[in-house]
Amino acid sequence: MLSRQTLRSVSAARHFSSSASRQTKVAVLGAGGGIGQPTSLLLKQNKLVTSLSLYDIRGAPGVAADVSHVDTASEVKGYAADQLDQALDGAEVIVIPAGVPRKPGMTRDDLFNTNASIVRDLATAIGRVAPKAHILVISNPVNSTVPIVASVLENLKVFDPRRLFGVTTLDVVRASRFLAGIAGTDPADTPVTVVGGHSGVTIVPLLSQSAVGKAVNGEAWEKLVYRIQYGGDEVVKAKDGAGSATLSMAYAAAKFTNQLLRALGGEKGVVAPTFVKSPLFETQGVDFFSTNVELGVNGVEKIHPVGPLSAEEEKLIEACLPELKKNIAKGQSFVSSS
Ligand code: NAI
């Protein structure tokens, strides 16, 4: 049996550790969905998350009750359709996988009509309730939904480009896994830089910048680039109408969220690929672009340049820019006309 003295010091230590450590509330909007559920589970296992707020137009209280039984310290709360403001209140990081996924034969742009208004409405609530939150957009088409969030926040006069991120982590995860599969290496030792956007030709893997990747040439290079650009289609086809990548996407979302939380907590030198407001191709009318970004206590700290390109990669960038420009403009004009 513990003495009263011991119990007092345990409770004092607890009190000290909870008041001394950072409190971080993370909200997941679309938490009841294919991506939202496993993302919530993975975030429940993250020690940097102290409070997890799960919102969806359906099913979030059930997911929250389930996830809340996992034996980690964070608190989990679920919010129903009419409780968006409560879900957002005090959130420092907001992850958005809300919206419809692709079916076979669809491009990400085909999702625009449905997902554009979902993302616009969520961004409007964020701008009102949690204007200082870091926003991680997963909902497709990312090339357009990120500019939509930016435009909504600009209209509300609360846009800070350091705090808005399109989640392109899955492209980098795939690139690394596919290249490692060819080279017979461990993906952990096979990083690949991927730049551009998050759909088809806008996804530009820079294999020449990787020690392992630069050995891949000719037809093998073409096949690998295609697989990285269209890897999502493999999942959509295999799921045969039941949706797109959810588990690997949740892994990618949790990975990026963890990188951001580490940086927000003061860790230096955290570099992650993400689709952000970027000056790199602004002169060519492309306001958002994904490259490696150094993250810091305020979000985006430093946008890395694309780095040296091979002649083939120059061509990939040439194909990427006009498509990306079109996707960005589509998002921006959706907000200005609605
Ligand atoms: P899903 O249909 O399984 O789940 C979407 C969830 O969003 C549903 O639970 C739905 O009730 C909810 N939702 C709809 N409207 C909402 C609103 N206004 N507020 C809150 N929640 C709302 O779809 P899944 O598979 O989870 O995909 C979600 C999105 O993520 C899709 O747009 C998909 O294309 C995208 N995605 C993005 C990837 C990336 O790399 N960035 C990779 C894979 C998918």
TrEMBL record:
Binding annotation for NAD(+): G30, A31, G32, G33, G34, I35, G36, D56, N115, I138, S139, N140, M249
Protein keywords: NAD, Oxidoreductase, Tricarboxylic acid cycle
The protein's name: Malate dehydrogenase
Record EC number: 1.1.1.37
Catalytic reaction(s) noted: (S)-malate + NAD(+) = oxaloacetate + NADH + H(+)
One Gene Ontology molecular-function label: L-malate dehydrogenase (NAD+) activity
EC class of the enzyme, as a word: oxidoreductase
